[in-house]
Design a protein that fits this description.
Layout (H helix, E strand, L loop, with lengths): L5 E5 L3 H13 L3 E5 L2 H10 L4 E4 L8 H11 L4 E6 L4 H9 L2 E6 L4 H12 L1
Parallel strand pairs: 1-2, 1-3, 3-4, 4-5
Length: about 120
């Protein structure tokens, strides 16, 4: 097997995201955390990920801005959304930016892991 697939989780809700990160790591992925979109971009530039999973409502730089900027820098990267607030009018932004899956919070970790496997395998 090649090197571990790398997942970047961008979310400002520390404890929730740590639990999700642990679950994803237990499935054999390498996980990096960032607290907002600005930090997410910096982390991605230093250490590109195979899949970026982001929240939408975050301080400093929100998920939409982050997704647009990331997509410009890395046209082929897999982007997914994990958010409490996925409204209908937001969906077209996600479609335009080729978001591969979206989950509402709270997420069922097993469903999330299944979606990750699907994208990365």
């Amino acid at each position: 097997m090649g090197s571990m697939k790398h997942i970047l989780l961008v979310d400002d809700e520390g404890i929730i995201i740590l639990n999700i990160a642990r679950k994803i790591e237990s499935e054999g992925y390498r996980v990096t955390l960032a607290l907002d979109g600005k930090e997410g971009l910096q982390v991605f530039r230093d250490d590109p990920a195979d899949l970026v999973i982001t929240d939408l409502s975050m301080p400093v730089m929100d998920g939409y801005t982050f997704i647009r900027e990331l997509r410009q820098e890395a046209p082929a990267v897999n982007i997914a959304v994990l958010s409490a607030a996925i409204k209908e009018e937001l969906k077209e932004i996600l479609v335009e930016n080729h978001v591969c899956f979206t989950f509402s919070k709270p997420v069922q970790e097993n469903m999330l892991v299944d979606a990750i496997h699907e994208v990365l395998n």
